[in-house]
């Protein structure tokens, strides 16, 4: 990705007429061609529609019109975002061949801003996973090391940005699915406050946790993308109705109070290089005038267990609709129940089935209170603990993931070990807060490490300020 | 460690979830789910009787839309996505269960 | 032989008369071409999200006022999870343990029926069973139309406070009148916009032990509701008499056979795995929303009937007929407001006018004769300008062509002859040419006298061209005959 331009630079060049959108798109398509065979970051490359859009943007510029703040910027979309008429699969056989008759709100906003969707990226089936190995269409590889995973579930988007296909991509984050692959691939990944970005057109995994967010190579590019897609949407009842304040361009952390979350940093299983990166970032911030302290958020310890009850429960219901009646795969059966059961058995992969089973069990008669109900209460505890911490701190720091990217196949046989790689990211989703991963340092194997910056709900502005400061320490 | 969920329970849950599974899948799922539920024991064991559950991370109420019509989808496009249709409707095999 | 007490509770599903569906902007319209009122939301397409229709909440609050419900500070939606091809998401969005309305009641024929709750939920699509005579279990396959999927429903659940089919019918009838009055539904049982399921159980009169509850479905009129309940009572009594065990089940009413059929039940028991719908937020009616609801509820049927009975001096059955037909009642009230007497207006409305409407399949709003015209007709009758038979004649013309009754009377010279002098001369003339009849009247027994008197009265009316005031003519005739 040497010499690749940022989104900010590309948009400026296209808006001023210095570069044609067409040439930007051709360059992106060439980058994809050069590495896609080995990486498999994309489920679909939308070359024709991207070229057509680029032509329209160039024509608009030629007519003296402004195509918008992302003019001519190619962008990759996680393949769980609906785009009218384009294949949208969630990397599942059950949706293979499905073309939505409508477009997600975030994609509408990208188009209105002049961005050019160029690829649908690979993911763990229905966003369930942490390595992008659970894809019906094969795994994505980490651009830094072809024997390693890119993280997940938005591994395709992270890899596409990391490999220089595109300066920007969208992913979705339910328990860390943007931040963890961003850390593994050495890019910036943002999980905005729940409700800040419309979920309309995002194929649901766990509705009360899912949030769409940006991948970018720089913090500024991530901010530009987030400002393009966020804000109220009448199509999403859980969309926060107030207009967000601009993120701003600040990087001054002097006087900010920053806490290092003990439970997520001192945890057993956190690689020493990862812990060291967090501490090095913290002392760098201290050197820039921030007050640094360690802080305990005790209920974080229960986050993983609560998450693996809540998310599968909601998923078991959200994924019931894949029944072979209205769209997608059907495997015939003697009656409708048999047809449903055979279709779902053939269409879903092992991890999706596991989570549907787990969630169905957690909601079933006699177990609801012990599992789902109890997990919702842990959620209350976590929110309360974070609220206390944010009385004393403006932002919090932790590792994004316990380790650098692991080997392909290393954790596929042990679901629990795989789940553990989300341990640092999950509490933010349960609380509905904002968090982002900024590349900072490398691990023992020389692969990227991410530092996580956490902020309270609607705290994106201060979060980006600190992230920019961390970026400046590199 | 004994699994917390038996293959019989797995089959019952699979039935609720409309997933056809083989006997060996039932045994394997029983084991895997057992391990995950074992891990969830830390949460299940907490005394949270005085804590309110959180269903939504944000506290909004009364998000309402006006009762104003919006365009519907084109029927041909909708039906074209379906595995089987007949006479402008979705076709399904015979229904053996109860109506609701 | 043991006698049994019947315990009936009713679940009434009401389709709301909104413009759009519960969670999307598709039209809420009965009878459209299959699968034309569908969108990503009501088809449950991946990625779609529900947004609640404001009017549905407003309607629920109106219902809250009309059925004396409590409306708690907050209510939420749950997902009811089960697979069925008429449900696009394979879960139904409904309300579970925090419904919008709780603890209501209405009085039916002097008895209070308690109503446990009313909650908002989405309707399902419509399946058509192909082959096997259209019956679900015998069908070869089924076809699904999702136009109805997502239509807003209010489900109104009574307490088991009814003891007979008669009382159950009375409850549904009163509920229907109330729903029509507050204008939230078409309440057409035949079209399915009001669907009633009955829970029926019997218990031996000597015990407090509740019997096993059987749910019966598929009644599409008040009459079939009554028949189905009676048939179920009979079936359960016979079983109890022969000491058979009644199983808890759902039974289907067969209108043609006049019996209920047990429905094959699914393997295992249902487990709906209810949990709070994460895509929707709580409904917390504000003071302002509650105030608007209180102020928007019009006069309800029970007080309205009482008012008409006392103000117009009409009978309770006429009052029920009028109030059950909101448009006719509005018509009658307009006629009274235009000066007609309540009692006379009611007589015409529940008699000739209702007959005309039924015969022509028309509605009061469509009548050519406006309420002012009816008031005029009633006045012409009251001041003896018209006899009742002339008035019917005039009404017939006024229902067919846009003219006022007085115009008809004047154009056709129909005004009644009321002048006693004129009428006396008429009597003299007629009696003068019918001396035989008078002689026969004088000689005859009571039966013959009645016959001759009738003949003479007929001659008098004929000679007057039907315009003679019959009351005055009768009186004059009697005087002459008894001279």
Structure in words:
The complex is a heterotrimer of chains A (474), B (100) and C (483). Chain A is an alpha/beta fold. Helix content of chain A is 40%, strand content 13%. Chain A has a domain at 305-369. Chain A has an eleven-stranded mixed β-sheet, with helices on both faces. In chain A, strand 10 and strand 11 (448-455) form a beta hairpin. The longest helix of chain A has 24 residues, at 369-392. In chain A, 67% of the residues are buried. The mean pLDDT of chain A is 97. Chain B has 100 residues and is mainly alpha-helical. Chain B has a domain at 7-44: Histone, subunit A, CATH 1.10.20. Chain B has helices at 7-16, 23-44, 75-80, and strands at 64-65, 85-86, 89-93. In chain B, strands 2-3 form a two-stranded antiparallel ribbon. In chain B, strand 2 (85-86) and strand 3 (89-93) form a beta hairpin. In chain B, helix 1 (7-16) packs across helix 2 (23-44). Chain C is an alpha+beta fold and 483 residues long. Chain C has three domains: 4-291, no CATH class; 299-412, no CATH class; 421-481, Orthogonal Bundle (Arc Repressor Mutant, subunit A), CATH 1.10.10. Chain C has helices at 54-66, 165-182, 222-241, 287-296, 301-312, 316-324, 326-337, 342-360, 371-382, 388-400, 405-412, 420-432, 435-443, 446-463, 470-481, and strands at 4-15, 52-53, 78-81, 91-94, 101-108, 111-122, 126-130, 141-145, 152-158, 194-204, 214-219, 249-254, 259-262, 275-276. In chain C, the strands form three sheets. Chain C has an eight-stranded mixed β-sheet with strand order 5-6-9-1-10-11-12-13. Chain C has a three-stranded antiparallel β-sheet with strand order 4-3-14, with no helix packed on it. In chain C, strands 7-8 form a two-stranded antiparallel sheet. In chain C, strand 11 (214-219), helix 3 and strand 12 (249-254) form a beta-alpha-beta unit. In chain C, helix 12 (420-432) packs across helix 14 (446-463), helix 13 (435-443) runs antiparallel to helix 14 and helix 14 packs across helix 15. The mean pLDDT of chain C is 92. Classes of the chains: A alpha/beta (474), B mainly alpha (100), C alpha+beta (483). Chains A and B meet through helix 10, helix 11, helix 12, helix 13 and helix 14 of A and helix 1, helix 2 and strand 3 of B.
């Amino acid at each position: 990705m040497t010499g690749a331009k940022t989104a900010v630079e590309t948009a400026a060049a296209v808006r001023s007429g210095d570069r044609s959108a067409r040439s930007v798109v051709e360059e992106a398509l060439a980058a994809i061609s050069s590495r896609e065979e080995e990486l498999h970051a994309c489920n679909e490359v939308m070359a024709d529609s991207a070229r057509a859009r680029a032509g329209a943007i160039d024509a608009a510029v030629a007519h003296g019109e402004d195509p918008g703040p992302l003019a001519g910027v190619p962008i990759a979309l996680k393949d769980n975002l609906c785009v009218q008429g384009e294949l949208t699969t969630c990397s599942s056989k059950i949706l293979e061949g499905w073309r939505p008759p409508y477009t997600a709100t975030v994609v509408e906003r990208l188009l209105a801003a002049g961005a050019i969707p160029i690829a649908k990226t690979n993911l763990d089936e229905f966003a369930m996973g942490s390595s992008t190995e659970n894809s019906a269409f094969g795994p994505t590889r980490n651009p830094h090391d072809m024997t390693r995973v890119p993280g997940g579930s938005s591994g395709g988007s992270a890899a596409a940005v990391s490999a220089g296909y595109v300066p920007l991509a969208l992913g979705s984050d339910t328990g860390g699915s943007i931040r963890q692959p961003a850390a593994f691939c050495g890019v910036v990944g943002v999980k905005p406050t729940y409700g800040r970005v419309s979920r309309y057109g995002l194929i649901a995994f766990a509705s009360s946790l899912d949030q769409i967010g940006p991948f970018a190579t720089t913090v500024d590019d991530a901010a530009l993308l987030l400002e393009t897609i966020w804000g109220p949407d009448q199509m999403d009842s859980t969309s926060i109705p107030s207009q967000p304040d601009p993120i701003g361009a600040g990087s001054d952390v002097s006087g900010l109070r920053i806490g290092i979350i003990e439970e997520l940093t001192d945890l057993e299983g956190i690689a020493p290089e990862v812990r060291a990166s967090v501490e090095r970032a913290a002392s760098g911030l201290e050197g820039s005038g921030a007050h640094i302290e360690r802080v305990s958020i005790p209920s974080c310890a229960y986050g993983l267990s609560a998450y693996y009850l809540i998310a599968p429960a909601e998923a078991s219901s959200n994924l019931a609709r894949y029944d072979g009646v209205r769209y997608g795969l059907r495997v015939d059966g003697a009656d409708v129940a048999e047809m449903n059961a055979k279709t779902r058995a053939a269409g879903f992969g092992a991890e999706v089935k596991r989570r549907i089973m787990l969630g169905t069990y957690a909601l079933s008669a006699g177990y609801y209170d012990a599992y789902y109900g109890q997990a919702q209460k842990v959620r209350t505890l976590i929110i309360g603990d974070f609220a206390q911490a944010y009385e004393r701190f403006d932002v919090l720091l932790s590792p994004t993931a316990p380790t650098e990217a692991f080997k392909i196949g290393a954790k596929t046989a042990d679901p629990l070990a795989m789940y553990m790689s989300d341990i640092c990211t999950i509490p933010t989703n349960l609380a509905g807060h904002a968090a982002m991963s900024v590349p900072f340092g490398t691990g023992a194997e020389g692969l990227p490490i991410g530092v996580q910056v956490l902020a309270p709900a609607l705290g994106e502005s201060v979060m980006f300020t600190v992230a920019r400061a961390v970026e400046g320490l590199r | 460690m004994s699994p917390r969920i038996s293959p019989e329970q797995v089959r019952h849950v699979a039935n609720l979830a409309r997933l056809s599974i083989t006997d060996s899948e039932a045994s394997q799922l029983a084991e895997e789910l057992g391990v995950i539920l074992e891990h969830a024991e830390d949460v299940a064991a907490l005394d949270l009787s005085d804590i309110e559950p959180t269903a939504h991370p944000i506290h909004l109420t009364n998000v309402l839309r006006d009762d104003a019509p919006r365009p519907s989808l084109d029927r041909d496009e909708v039906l074209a996505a379906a595995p089987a249709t007949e006479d402008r409707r979705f076709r399904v095999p015979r229904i053996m269960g109860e109506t609701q | 032989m043991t006698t049994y007490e019947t315990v009936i509770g009713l679940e009434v599903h009401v389709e709301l008369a909104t413009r759009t569906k519960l969670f999307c902007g598709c039209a809420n319209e009965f009878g459209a071409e299959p699968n034309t009122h569908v969108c990503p939301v009501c088809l449950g397409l991946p990625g779609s999200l529900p947004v609640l229709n404001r009017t549905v909440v407003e309607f629920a609050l109106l219902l809250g006022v009309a059925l004396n419900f409590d409306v708690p500070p907050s209510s939420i939606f749950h997902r009811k999870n089960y697979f069925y091809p008429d449900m696009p998401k394979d879960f139904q969005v409904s309300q579970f343990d925090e419904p919008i309305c709780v603890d209501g009641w209405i009085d039916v024929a002097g008895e209070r029926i308690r109503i446990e709750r009313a909650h908002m939920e989405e309707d399902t699509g419509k399946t058509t069973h192909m082959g096997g005579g259209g019956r679900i279990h015998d069908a070869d396959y089924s076809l699904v139309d999702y136009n109805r999927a997502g239509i807003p429903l209010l489900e109104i659940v009574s307490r088991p406070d009814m003891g007979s089919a008669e009382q159950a019918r009375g409850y549904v009838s009163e509920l229907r009148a109330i729903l029509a009055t507050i204008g939230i539904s078409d309440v057409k049982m035949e079209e399915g916009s009001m669907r009633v399921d009955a829970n029926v159980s019997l218990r031996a009169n000597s015990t407090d032990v509740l019997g096993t509850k059987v749910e019966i479905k598929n009644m599409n009129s008040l009459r079939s509701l009554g028949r189905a309940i009676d048939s179920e009572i009979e079936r359960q009594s016979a079983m109890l008499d022969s000491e058979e065990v009644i199983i808890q089940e759902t039974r289907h009413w067969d209108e043609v056979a006049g019996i209920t059929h047990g429905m094959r039940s699914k393997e295992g028991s249902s487990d709906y795995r209810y949990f709070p719908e994460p895509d929707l937020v709580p409904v917390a009616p504000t003071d302002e929303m509650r105030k608007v609801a209180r102020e928007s509820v019009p006069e309800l049927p029970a007080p309205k009937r009482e008012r008409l009975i006392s103000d117009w001096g009409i009978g309770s059955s006429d009052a029920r007929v009028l109030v059950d037909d909101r448009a006719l009642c509005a018509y009658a009230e307009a006629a009274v407001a235009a000066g007609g007497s309540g009692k006379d207006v009611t007589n015409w409305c529940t008699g000739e006018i209702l007959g005309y409407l039924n015969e022509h399949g028309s509605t009061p709003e469509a009548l050519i004769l406006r309420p002012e015209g009816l008031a005029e007709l009633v006045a012409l009758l009251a001041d003896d300008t018209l006899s009742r038979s002339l008035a019917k004649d005039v009404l017939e013309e006024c229902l067919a062509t846009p003219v006022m009754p007085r115009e008809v009377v004047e154009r056709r010279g129909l005004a009644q002859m009321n002048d006693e002098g004129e009428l006396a001369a008429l009597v003299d003339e007629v009696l003068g040419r019918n001396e035989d009849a008078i002689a026969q009247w004088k000689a005859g027994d009571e039966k013959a006298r009645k016959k001759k008197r009738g003949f003479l009265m007929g001659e008098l009316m004929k000679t007057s061209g039907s315009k003679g005031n019959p009351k005055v003519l009768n009186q004059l005739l009697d005087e002459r005959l008894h001279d």
